[in-house]
Write a structure and sequence with these properties.
Blueprint lengths: L7 H4 L8 H33 L11 E5 L9 E4 L4 H8 L1 E3 L6 E4 L17 H4 L3 E6 L2 E6 L17 E7 L2 E3 L5 H28 L1
Antiparallel strand pairs: 1-2, 3-8, 4-7, 5-6, 6-7
Length: about 210
């Protein structure tokens, strides 16, 4: 998660008459205004995700949400990936991705894809079974498909071409790309004060 702090004193509406009612309603109005801009940030982050990632499934963008709403007692809202979606959390913080086994398999252009650019089920590493073997090409290691297992030449003994499906690496560096602070800060700066004024006036009207 990224953190955006609000200086409430500097954001207080200038034209509000600070009666006892206004002061009493301020914590409630503040929490509502925070939630308003939190949902605005969520909307903007979701809208920008396709320009930062290759989105192959629509549900991915919906995994960024307001995961904690502000209350009168806790005026903090959290916008970010849902807790169970750890792969998106890494896109916010960056870092190093480690393999579950010996390698991380990075697909090459030789891997077949569907119309939506998803990897074909038949070409996923777990589905290939004995059809593939680890092939060393120069300084790189690949999961390769050949006509005969163990063929070393560019053209296998059976006449089929060697297909280098996945580059195998021991770890992968992830750059932070989600941009919660970068996207959210202008939204907060431009919208919090008018939302606070609106919520405070509405709360005072209801309290009359």
């Amino acid at each position: 998660m990224a953190s955006i702090d609000i200086d409430l004193k500097s954001e207080l509406p200038k034209l509000v008459k600070w009666t006892d009612t206004a002061v009493k309603q301020l914590p409630y109005a503040t929490s509502q205004a925070i939630n308003d801009v939190a949902y605005m940030v969520r909307t903007n982050v979701r809208a920008e995700m396709p320009s930062r990632f290759t989105i192959r499934r629509e549900w991915v963008t919906r995994q960024v949400d307001v995961v904690q709403r502000a209350t009168k007692d806790k005026p903090n809202a959290l916008v970010g990936p849902k807790p169970e979606v750890d792969f998106l959390a890494r896109q916010q913080t960056g870092g190093t991705k480690l393999p579950r086994g010996n390698w991380i398999a990075i697909p090459t252009k030789a891997v077949r894809r569907t119309k939506s650019q998803m990897i074909s089920k038949a070409d996923r590493p777990g589905a290939l079974g004995e059809k593939v073997h680890v092939e060393r090409v120069g300084r790189s290691t690949f999961l390769a498909l050949t006509g005969e297992k163990g063929a070393r030449a560019r053209r296998g003994a059976s006449g089929t071409r060697l297909r280098l499906l996945y580059l195998l690496v021991p770890r992968a560096a992830l750059q932070p790309r989600l941009g919660l602070s970068e996207i959210g800060l202008p939204v907060v700066r431009n919208n919090f004060q008018p939302r606070l004024a609106y919520r405070l006036r509405a709360a005072m009207d209801r309290a009359k």
